[in-house]
Amino acid sequence: MAPVLVLIAVAAAGVLVWLRGPEVVAEVIIDESRRLLALIPDILEKEKPLDTRVIAKRAAIKEAETAPPPATKPSAPLAAPAGKTAKTVSPPAVAAGAKPKDKKAVVPKAQTPPPAPVVRPKIASSRITVRQGDAESPGLVEKNIKPMSPEEEAENNYRQAAAYLQQGRRGDAENGLRAALAANPAHAPARELLAGLALQNGRTLEAQQLLEEGLQKNPKHYSFAQFLARLYVDQGAEQKALALMEGAAEAGAADPAFLAFLGALYQRAGRHADAVAAYTKAVTLRPDEGRWWLGLGISLEAEKNLAAASDAYTRAQQSGALDQNLQRYVEQRLTAIKNK
User: Fold this and answer.
1) Which domain, by its residues, includes 297?
2) For residue 132, what is the DSSP state?
3) Is the pTM for the entire model greater than 0.70?
4) How far apart are CA 245 and CA 252, in angstroms?
5) What's the pLDDT tens digit per position in 31-89?
6) Do 150 and 285 fall into the same domain?
7) Number of folded domains in the chain?
8) What are phi and psi of 10, to 5 degrees?
9) By CB atoms within 10 Å of each CB, which of 149, 208, 220, 339 scores lowest?
10) What is each CA distance from 136 to 73, 77, 123, 141, 311, in whole angstroms?
11) Packing angle between helix 290-302 and helix 306-319, nearest 10 degrees?
12) Do residues 158 and 176 make contact, with C-beta atoms less than 8 angstroms apart?
């Protein structure tokens, strides 16, 4: 872009903030929720590899189903206890014509029987038994492996999908996440991650359906409501978004980002007293977020509480979290309040 066009774009943005300050601030805060949902896959890709204990358990079950039964070796004769005389075993009869000293010639070699057909156990009961030999003890060792529950199956698929995502295999990751939801539709992390991938790939309707289904199955998972409300705002259904957020307000009362988003929706609806309450809770939980202080100042000014609005604007200005346009808007509001 040419320098002149850049200057024009910056100037236009500044005029937009000056003319539509409250609306622009609310849009910035609301957009955080949509950005967060779309960032979930990227954040997970940068995380350390997840714990693979559940994956290892599944591998053990699969090995138990497919491994042939090991050949058994005859047990060595046990030594007689102290104080007791061991029983004498009679030597085998010598075949006719053979010399007594040549005992090896008359002992026939045992032929190895053909391997038994592999029978895969069906996991129908609560446990399966795996019989295998041990290097130190040739006898059979029994191990009980409990089959995975739907919740464990879902967690296993989710972790495998996360591993695929960390390897850049997004197609395999999506398949694993769908398998996780098929096993346990209430698995919230798998649903959020799949919705985030769908949103990144432009499949907004799919992301919306995933979140709506998740909210039906788990109404207390307020993140579903927050992300879904952001998609409703994109569609122009702000009243629907606000009603959804209000329904999840109790569950999200300790999440500052949720509260700031709710405050922005109240602000856009002209309900400034409610916006002040939501923003105040948000900045109490996270005092260094300048945009939330700015949102609080706007609603306080709309409520004619100029002294508190000036304090909120000052906190926003001192946070260092505002861009140039928002900083300019704050300076304008502080000047306007001072001249009143």
Assistant:
1) 238-340
2) E
3) no
4) 9
5) 655 555 655 565 555 544 444 444 445 555 555 555 555 555 555 445 544 554 545 54
6) no
7) 2
8) -65, -45
9) 339
10) 12, 15, 29, 11, 76
11) 160
12) yes
